[in-house]
């Protein structure tokens, strides 16, 4: 995963639709998404996408990953999580840099793939951390294994915690928390709107 | 979910069910070397038309379990609105997960990775007691259940008797 630097943001043309040469690149990206998707969504899928890919794909909103906190191990309550979401710069980049909803295809199958690529982007923005021995969340209910100290975990907005791989694969299929059924994107969007 | 993870999870459930059997059904593998294929015996729930019956069913788990649901098929003949004439069980918790098709309001009714053999069977047993005629898999049984209950009862009673004979 390419970490975007501040100037990369300035350089990247966000309005791909306005620049013809970028449309080709966007098409290539869609092709690649399609190929990858044929092998099925998996957690390793996430790493195959570069930041540029993410920018080129139609996204309704953009958040700069480098603005996210690196260490979420201190997050252990819902209010902390809300606080964390509030620190995310939602209005960044400025509106003129936000990518337009670029319709790459009318084909429903490809639409689905584009949706999946967007999903990948959303999943990447859910915080991760390493298991700190917290007694409240001992076990990943997807694989039913107890967490071991230091193991990589991902937190959902409802504060339910899972192994990164386990929850990534699930969220590619259904965007709800397996424990409490809270829709993940609705929760994310609500947090943004209340900001 | 890798194959080893799904088989590990199923092995764990098998040994748990062997250690602490759950009332209402028994479960095991069809073939000891094949962890993805289970055979269960459901005891017709008391105070229902199925009381006294012994219904054998197979569960086929995909390698992606628990991200995807198993398929469940009754081997013993059974007459029920939500079980088709081939024995395939059609209940929402065994529907593939997805966002658009069923809508969020129904997320709780669809497949979730937290489901185990035990929770699936508990749902199936409650389905026996309480059919859902909104999306019947056996349209004739659903129609009878609504419009000609005595005939429905008679057909179920015949299945119960047959299941007892097969079980001996
Ligand atoms: Zn897990
Ligand atoms: Zn939750």
From TrEMBL, chain A:
Keywords, in A-Z order: Metal-binding, Zinc, Zinc-finger
Entry annotated with the keyword Amino-acid biosynthesis: no
Limits of the RING-type domain: 140-180
A single cellular component GO annotation: ubiquitin ligase complex
Example GO biological process: ubiquitin-dependent protein catabolic process
InterPro entries listed in its UniProt record: RNF11_RING-H2 (IPR042981), UEC_component (IPR052804), Znf_RING (IPR001841), Znf_RING/FYVE/PHD (IPR013083)
SMART domains in UniProt: RING
Positions of the UniProt region annotated as Disordered: 1-24
Pfam family, one: zf-RING_2
Single GO molecular function: zinc ion binding
UniProt protein name: RING-type domain-containing protein
Native organism taxonomy: Eukaryota, Metazoa, Ecdysozoa, Arthropoda, Hexapoda
UniProtKB/TrEMBL annotation, chain B:
Active site residues of this protein: 90
Keywords for this protein: ATP-binding, Nucleotide-binding, Transferase, Ubl conjugation pathway
E.C. numbers: 2.3.2.23
Single GO term (MF): ubiquitin conjugating enzyme activity
Signal peptide: none
Gene3D superfamilies listed in its UniProt record: Ubiquitin Conjugating Enzyme
GO annotation terms (biological process): protein modification by small protein conjugation
Matches recorded under CDD domains: UBCc_UBE2G1 (cd23795)
Record-linked Pfam families: UQ_con (PF00179)
Superkingdom of source: Eukaryota
Family from the record: Belongs to the ubiquitin-conjugating enzyme family.
The protein, known as: E2 ubiquitin-conjugating enzyme
Organism taxonomic ancestry: Eukaryota, Metazoa, Ecdysozoa, Arthropoda, Hexapoda
């Amino acid at each position: 995963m390419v970490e975007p630097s501040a100037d990369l943001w300035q350089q990247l043309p966000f309005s791909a639709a306005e620049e013809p040469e970028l449309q080709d690149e966007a098409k290539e990206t869609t092709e690649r998404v399609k190929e990858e998707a044929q092998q099925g969504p998996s957690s390793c899928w996430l790493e195959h996408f570069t930041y540029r890919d993410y920018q080129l794909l139609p996204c309704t909103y953009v958040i700069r990953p480098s603005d996210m906190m690196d260490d979420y191990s201190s997050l252990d309550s819902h209010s902390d999580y809300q606080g964390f979401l509030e620190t995310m710069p939602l209005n960044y980049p400025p509106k003129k840099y936000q990518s337009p909803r670029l319709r790459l295809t009318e084909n429903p199958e490809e639409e689905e793939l584009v949706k999946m690529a967007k999903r990948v982007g959303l999943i990447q923005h859910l915080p991760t951390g390493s298991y700190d021995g917290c007694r409240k969340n001992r076990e990943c209910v997807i694989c039913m294994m107890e967490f071991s100290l230091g193991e990589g975990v991902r937190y959902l907005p409802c504060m339910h915690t899972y192994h990164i791989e386990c929850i990534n694969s699930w969220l590619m299929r259904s965007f709800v928390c397996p424990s409490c059924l809270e829709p993940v994107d609705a929760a994310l969007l609500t947090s943004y709107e209340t900001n | 979910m890798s194959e080893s993870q799904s088989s590990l999870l199923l092995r764990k459930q098998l040994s748990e069910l062997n250690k602490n059997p759950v009332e209402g059904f028994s479960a095991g593998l069809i073939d000891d070397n094949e962890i993805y294929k289970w055979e269960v015996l459901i005891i017709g729930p008391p105070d229902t038309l199925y009381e006294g019956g012994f219904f054998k069913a197979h569960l086929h788990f995909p390698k992606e379990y628990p991200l995807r649901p198993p398929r469940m098929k009754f081997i013993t003949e059974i007459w029920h609105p939500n079980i088709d004439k081939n024995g395939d069980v059609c209940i929402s918790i065994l529907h593939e997960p997805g966002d658009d098709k069923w809508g969020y309001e129904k997320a709780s009714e669809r497949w979730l990775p937290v489901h185990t053999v035990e929770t699936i069977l508990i749902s199936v047993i409650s389905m026996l007691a309480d059919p859902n005629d909104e999306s019947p898999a056996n349209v004739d049984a659903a129609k009878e259940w609504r419009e000609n209950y005595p005939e429905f009862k008679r057909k179920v009673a015949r299945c119960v008797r047959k299941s007892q004979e097969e079980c001996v």
